[in-house]
Amino acid sequence: MQTTIGQLNTTSVLFFLLFVVSTLAITWWAAKRTRTTKDFYAAGRSITGFQNGLALAGDYMSAASFLGIAGLVSTRGYDGLIYSVGWLVGWPIIMFLIAEPLRNLGKYTFADVVAFRLRQRPIRAAAAAGSLATVLFYLIAQMVGAGTLIKLMFGLPFEVALVAVGTLMIMYVLFGGMLATTWVQIIKAVLLLGGATVLVILTLSQFHFSYAELFSQAQTLYSEKFMQPGGLVSDPVDAFSLGLALMFGTAGLPHILMRFYTVPDAKQARKSVFVATGFIGYFYILTVTIGFGAAVLVGQKVIMGIDAGGNMAAPLLAEALGGTAFLGFLAAVAFATILAVVAGLTLAGASALSHDLYVGVIRR
């Protein structure tokens, strides 16, 4: 793998630099249009339902989804599906219970909504603390992935890579606000869906475009248990708890909830969730296919030999089917995925600190 990383540097760096330059140009464009609080936190409520749906999908399709679920399926088989299905089921809950009420109040953060009918200072402090805790843990995982990827691509020390990524995120949020973050998410979602689609087409071509043949070979290599539930979460209480967390956890992500303030009305808010659910559902079908394809074409020993958690399953499959050029493209797309998600998280954290804590609690 070390020789492969050295070979993919040129390709992945070119894709990476193209993404960074284009998104910085978007930030410059957005900065010229960001003049008011509504512009900064809610993109002037000018985002259409389709655009917001694609941005929501981009926010949600993180590196954990692309690399983590594919790796989990490649090493655990059928049980990896519980995460795909659980996360997807959370979106109808948002559409029917959350999207319209949030948009109708016309605020900027979740704390604005819950403080509308409750005591201002205590509820703002509690809501902001919960948002910051969620953002912090989410942000740490994404930044570690970004730092590791930059270290491999450019050969920089890990600490320097973290500072570089953090500086880039602050530039997106500070100058462009929600408008720049939205378009960064849209570009990233298109790249990720396109790259994953090509990878799935290449994978299925090895099995005459037959899922039956793919699953049959996976079962032959790894026994029937690989294609049956119960290996990852065997205790019913644990399974039920995990299911609840996956279903309702999405409704508590601050960088997701912020997106419902960017559309002009409740109808566009519902449309954005409908569009996002479609794109995310399609993406999870792709990751499941990538996981099973990696298990058969690359092998669990190779995948877990590179990373014990299986997170390199998708890049290794890309290398096996498309060579170092395709691997370089997917590496750059993976970094773009991290970059866009971190931008959304940074904006959510900045909103909780400045709008909720400082303005709502400290200055009242």
Question: Describe it for me?
Answer:
The protein has 364 residues and is mainly alpha-helical. The chain is 81% helix and 0% strand. The chain is built from 14 helices and no strands. The longest helix is centred in the C-terminal third of the chain and has 50 residues. The radius of gyration is 21 Å and the shape is globular. 49% of the residues are buried.
Q: Which tags fit this structure?
A:
single chain, mainly alpha, 14 helices
Q: Work out the helicity level.
A: over 70%
What's the Cα radius of gyration? 21 Å
Main sheet?
Answer: none
Strand content: under 5%
How much is the average pLDDT? Answer: 81
Oligomeric category? single chain
The 3D shape can be described as: globular
Structural class: mainly alpha
Low-confidence stretches: 1-7
Secondary-structure element order, as H and E? Answer: HHHHHHHHHHHHHH
How many strand segments? 0
Number of helix segments? Answer: 14
Question: How far is it from the N-terminal to the C-terminal residue, by CA?
Answer: 55 Å
